[in-house]
Amino acid sequence: MSFIQVLDQGYVRLVDKMGSDLTVVNAARVSYAKQSKELTDRDIRLIRFLAREGHTSPFRHAVLQFEIYAPLMVARQWWKYVVGSAHMEGTGDSLDAWNESSRRYITEEPVFYVPRKDEWRSKPDNSKQGSGQPIEWEKGEAFTASLMEYIEQGLEKYQAALDAGICAEQARLFLPAYGLYVRWYWTASLQAVCHFLSQRLEHDAQKEIQLYAKAILQLSEAQFPNAIAQFIKKEEVK
C-alpha cells in the first residue's frame, strides 16, 4: 500500500524511500567498522537501544518522501516540523524538504474541506486542547451549510477576478483560506518523521492532523517496521 485517503478529499501517498531498518543498524555499526548483511534479532536489539538512549543520528540516514493533499490549516501546522527540524536534530541544517503547489501559477479547480454535520466540535474545557466533544448535529448541519455558502461566494469572486484579467497570485485572495486543499511533497529523515508522529498522534493534537499522522504511520511502518516501532514507543513513553 502506498496511498491512503484522509478526510473527505485528502490523501497521503508514499512517493519514495531510501533505506530500511538495516540502514539504521549499519549507520550505527560503522563506528566499529562493522556491517550487517541481514537484519537479525541482535540488530533489532540495537535499534531498540539507539531509540531508548536517544542516539538518533543513525535514524537520519533513512529517508521517506510523501505527497500530501490536505487543508491549509493542516499544512501550516505540519510546516512547523520543517522549520524546527534543524534544531531538533542538532545538525545546523534541516533534513526536511517541502515543495508545495502554488496558486501563483496554477488555477486548477479549488477544493475545500467542509466538515459534515456530525464533525463540528465544541470548545474544549482545557485550553491546552484544541477542541471538545461533537456539537449537536442540528447546529452542525447549519454550520456546514453556512460554510458551503461562504465558499461559494469566495469562488464566485475569485472567478470574477480571473475573468476580469486579475493575475492568479492576487485573485486567490478571494478564496477562503483555511479549508482550501493544498498539495505538497514532504521529504524527511526517519528521525524527523518519528518526531512528527510522536507529537501529532497524541490525543490532544488537532483531530484532522491526527488522521494524517495515522496515515503517515501506516505507510512508514511498512517500510521501517522495527525502527518506527521502537522510536515511536520511546517518544510516547517520554
Automatic annotation (TrEMBL):
One MF term in the entry's GO annotations: NADPH binding
CDD domains for this protein: ThyX
A GO BP annotation: dTMP biosynthetic process
Gene3D superfamilies xrefs: 3.30.1360.170
Top EC category: transferase
EC numbers: 2.1.1.148
Protein name, as recorded: FAD-dependent thymidylate synthase
Organism: Seinonella peptonophila
